[in-house]
Amino acid sequence: MSEERDLQNANVSAMSDQISSITEERDLLQADLTEMTKELERLQSLFNQMKMCPTGWKMFSVCYFFSGISGVWGEARRDCRDKGADLVVIDSSKEQNFLTTIIKENTWIGLTDNGMEGQWKWVDGTPLTLSNWATNEPNNGGSPNSEEDCVHIRAEDRRTWNDISCTASMKWICKKLP
């Protein structure tokens, strides 16, 4: 009987050791799973930030298309919309600086006072807050009866903005999310 009890105690002890070993292994696997889940979330976040722009577009937190042809402001806007974008709305001086490093010619942006003279609004409907007007601009051509209702970035003059007739022909910049 004593031998049988000793054998049972040995079996219980061995099983207890096995349970401890399995529990420890489970805990290690759970820790590994937790780490892998965190790494997956980190990589997913990076992937989401790295969404790509369409071919021919440039990335600077969003996608920009710099036209290779010239057109009037309305044509420029229509082309951007056909691309699932709109004329660029400039939200920061960093964005302004980025854009001006690329343009080589006068270039349309999405700013106009078509709705009411002197009330400048972006194509997304937001009012103008940040600006980069050239000296003495906007000036509506120097006459209250002129029709300088659209805005472009000047290729010269420190890349400042100028109001000009919407029927002038120049290149443009489209902007959209990746």
TrEMBL record:
Show the coiled coil region(s): 19-46
Specify the signal sequence span: none
- Whether Coiled coil counts among this entry's keywords is yes
Q: Which residues form the C-type lectin domain?
A: 59-175
Molecular function (GO) terms listed? carbohydrate binding
Q: Where does the source fall among the domains of life?
A: Eukaryota
Q: Could you tell me the keywords of this UniProt record?
A: Coiled coil, Disulfide bond, Lectin
Record SUPFAM superfamilies: C-type lectin-like (SSF56436)
Q: Which Pfam families match?
A: Lectin_C
Stated name of the protein: C-type lectin domain family 4 member E-like
Lineage here is: Eukaryota, Metazoa, Chordata, Craniata, Vertebrata
Q: Which gene encodes it?
A: LOC102197942
